[in-house]
């Protein structure tokens, strides 16, 4: 009976469900089987490959190289630029391939947006000795 493949499959599914409940707080969003997990990974890889292919068609080689260098240092900024380029292409706003100067303009736009978000305020505390001076 220990060699029954159907029983073994049931045990594996049950074990995966128990692991998902312990790790995710009982969330049913986690896949129950390794096959489903593999299918999700394959789908993500296919989506990323499609994204890269679209960017290769939309961007000039010099712009792609610059974006690759940026992604090494700031992957979130590079991803935001990629998203902007892909959205503009989907809307039909890009008539020609994105050049390096156009990419620099987009980078400056993203940098301005991120600068506006962060603000540092320094408050100096007055000590006991400040009154004496």
Mean residue pLDDT: 80
**Total E-strand runs:** 0
Instruction: Please identify the top-level CATH class of the domain at 45-104.
Output: Mainly Alpha
Sequence stretches where pLDDT stays below 50 over 5 or more residues: none
Largest sheet features: none
CA distance, first residue to last residue: 89 Å
Q: What proportion strand?
A: under 5%
**H/E order of the elements?**
HHHHH
Question: What is the H level of CATH, i.e. the homologous superfamily of the domain at 45-104?
Answer: PDCD5, DNA-binding domain
Helix count equals 5
Overall geometric form: flat
**What is the CA-atom radius of gyration, in angstroms?**
26 Å
CATH third-level topology of the domain at 45-104: Helicase, Ruva Protein, domain 3
Protein model, in words:
There is one protein chain. Helices cover about 70% and strands about 0% of the residues. The protein has 5 helices and no strands. It has a domain at about 45-105: PDCD5, DNA-binding domain (Helicase, Ruva Protein, domain 3, Orthogonal Bundle), CATH 1.10.8.140. With about 130 residues, it is mainly α.
């Amino acid at each position: 009976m220990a060699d029954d493949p159907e029983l073994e499959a049931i045990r594996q599914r049950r074990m995966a469900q128990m692991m998902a409940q312990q790790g995710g707080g009982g969330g049913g969003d986690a896949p129950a089987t390794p096959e489903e997990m593999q299918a999700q990974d394959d789908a993500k890889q296919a989506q990323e490959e499609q994204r890269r292919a679209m960017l290769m068609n939309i961007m000039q080689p010099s712009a792609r190289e610059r974006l690759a260098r940026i992604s090494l240092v700031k992957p979130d900024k590079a991803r935001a630029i990629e998203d902007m380029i892909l959205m503009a292409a989907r809307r039909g706003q890009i008539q020609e391939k994105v050049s390096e100067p156009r990419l620099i303009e987009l980078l400056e736009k993203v940098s301005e947006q991120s600068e506006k978000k962060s603000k540092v305020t320094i408050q100096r505390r007055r000590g006991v000795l400040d009154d004496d001076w």
